[in-house]
Design goal:
Layout: H1 5-8, H2 12-33, H3 35-43, H4 65-70, E1 84-90, E2 98-103, H5 104-121, E3 128-131, H6 139-151, E4 154-156, H7 163-173, E5 177-180, H8 182-194, E6 206-210, H9 216-226, E7 229-236, E8 241-247, E9 254-256, E10 261-266, E11 280-286, E12 297-303, E13 305-306, E14 318-319, E15 324-325, E16 330-332, E17 335-337, H10 339-346, E18 352-363, E19 366-375, H11 384-402, E20 407-411, E21 426-428
Parallel strand pairs: 3-4, 3-5, 5-6, 6-7, 18-21, 19-20
Antiparallel strand pairs: 1-2, 7-8, 8-9, 9-14, 10-11, 11-12, 12-15, 13-14, 16-17, 18-19
The structure holds 5'-O-[hydroxy(phenylacetyl)phosphoryl]adenosine (DLL).
Length: 433
């Protein structure tokens, strides 16, 4: 079902007209309500009335995460606090979190975007959705919650953690849709197996996964373990939360809610916009937000835009699966390495589990990368030659894809850390040595 056919199937001309009108009012709102934006726009010599076509967006300066930090907590808000009804925050790895606010209209718009997204994935009012994201300052749980309720699905707001209870509730309440991070879905399947629960026999039929990326190999792993359709969605708190884009059941890119978010892809080095289909950094401008409008936000997420019409009938632009972030990219002896590339290799090899950790350190001046991965069968660890053969096989496969030598250490099943939220798989010790 298409939730909002008028918008999701609008012609390109119609969408562009809506985007231009909303871009103008967003720039105006920023200019007249947020000193930070006024200063930046003045410095760039741009006044709101200079925005006459969508191409004029190129004249607007970029916004980066540090702008939110420097204006902590509320200085980028374009609405008075009496109109702000909700706050969320994103925990940065360093320094202060970034705080985001929503008016009533923003919350409605957010629910609308998530409703479109979950319908595209296949949710109906008959579904029972279990939300395993934490109901915290993180946008994941509340974002999905309001959108799922809007389409009439039954929501189980179980929140994160306590996997055994999650499984018990899932069995008792007849959950049909699992909502969370892909890594948690895998972990739940593993706990279920230990408890003797056959996840494939449960009524769960659909996964709505996001908040972090997952490779096609990991997706197959999840689909096999649960016997479900695994769909992915994308968003970020600075822009709204989940609901920026999501896959339909064709899983051929994530449909963008283009009447609310204007997406560009730029070359992260030259900052020049790239044509559709070319890979670069995603930049998003909000088009209808009131409390925290955001102009040309550099997401650091690497993807490309897909302009061909989708088989589902929606006309919206799609974004490809995020390939990594410009800032989780590891540079190992001069070679750019994305953790997702390593994951892709590991999941294509039999005899190991999808749980892994990447440790980067310096040996003298040399960058060294070590990949720890759990074997599926603990008895392998006692069979030296088989163990060595498997390690070599993984090393070779990693070398073929990454073009660098990585050390591989096979470890016992269940010995690596598990995650209830976003997985943190990389430990980079180079700065601390
Ligand atoms: O993760 C919002 C969200 C929650 C999206 C639940 C989908 C589902 P933040 O905590 O601000 O917001 O983190 C945003 O997470 O810039 C990406 O790097 C990453 N991310 C989110 N979804 C995906 C995805 C939420 N599907 C950051 N694939 C973003 C890859 C993702 N990365």
């Amino acid at each position: 079902m298409i939730w909002n056919e008028k918008m999701e199937c609008a012609s390109r001309d119609e969408i562009r007209a809506i985007q231009l009108e909303r871009l103008k009012s967003t720039v105006e709102r920023c200019y007249y309500n947020v000193p930070h934006y006024r200063k930046k726009l003045d410095e760039a010599g741009v006044r709101p009335e200079d925005i006459r076509s969508l191409d004029d967006i190129r004249r607007i300066p970029f916004t980066v995460k540090d702008d939110l930090r420097e204006n902590y907590p509320y200085k980028l808000f374009a609405a008075p606090m009496k109109d702000v009804v909700r706050l969320h925050a994103s925990s940065g790895t360093t320094g202060k979190p970034t705080v985001v606010g929503y008016t009533k209209a923003d919350i409605d718009m957010w629910a609308e975007c998530v409703a479109r997204m979950v319908c595209a994935a296949g949710v109906t009012p008959d579904d029972i959705a279990q939300i395993t994201f934490g109901y915290t300052l993180f946008t994941g749980a509340f974002g999905l919650h309001y959108g799922l309720e809007k389409v009439g699905a039954t929501v189980i707001p179980i929140s994160g953690g306590n996997t055994e209870r999650q499984l018990a509730i899932m069995q008792d309440f007849g959950t049909t849709v699992l909502v969370g991070t892909p890594s948690y879905a895998l972990y739940m399947a593993e706990v279920a197996k230990k408890k003797g629960i056959d996840t494939r026999k449960l009524p769960v039929r659909l996964g709505l996964f996001g908040g972090e990326g997952h490779t096609d190999e990991m997706r197959r792993e999840i689909e096999n373990a649960w016997g479900i359709l695994d769909t992915e969605n994308y968003g970020l708190s600075e822009v709204i939360g989940p609901g920026v884009s999501g896959e339909c059941h064709f899983k051929d890119g994530m449909h963008i809610a283009e009447d609310h978010f204007l997406c560009e892809v730029i070359d992260p080095d030259t900052l020049e916009p790239l044509p559709y289909g070319e890979k670069g950094e995603l930049v998003i401008t909000s088009l209808s937000k009131e409390a925290l409008p955001i102009l040309r936000y550099r997401t650091k997420d690497i993807t490309w835009l897909i302009s061909e019409k989708c088989r589902c009938g929606r006309t919206s632009m799609r974004m490809a699966k995020v390939q990594g972030r410009t800032d989780d990219m590891l540079i190992i002896r001069g070679v750019n390495v994305f953790p997702s590339q390593i994951e892709g290799v590991l999941l294509s090899i039999d005899g190991i589990s999808p749980h892994y950790e990447i440790v980067v350190r310096k040996d003298g001046y040399m960058d060294c990368i070590e990949v720890l991965v759990e074997v599926s069968d603990a008895s392998l660890l006692d069979r030296f030659s088989a163990l060595e053969a498997l390690e070599n096989k993984i090393k070779h496969a990693l070398y073929t894809v990454l073009n660098i030598h990585a050390d591989v250490r096979l470890v016992e099943p269940q010995s690596l850390k598990r995650f209830e939220g976003k997985a943190k798989r990389v430990t980079d010790l180079r700065g601390q040595q």
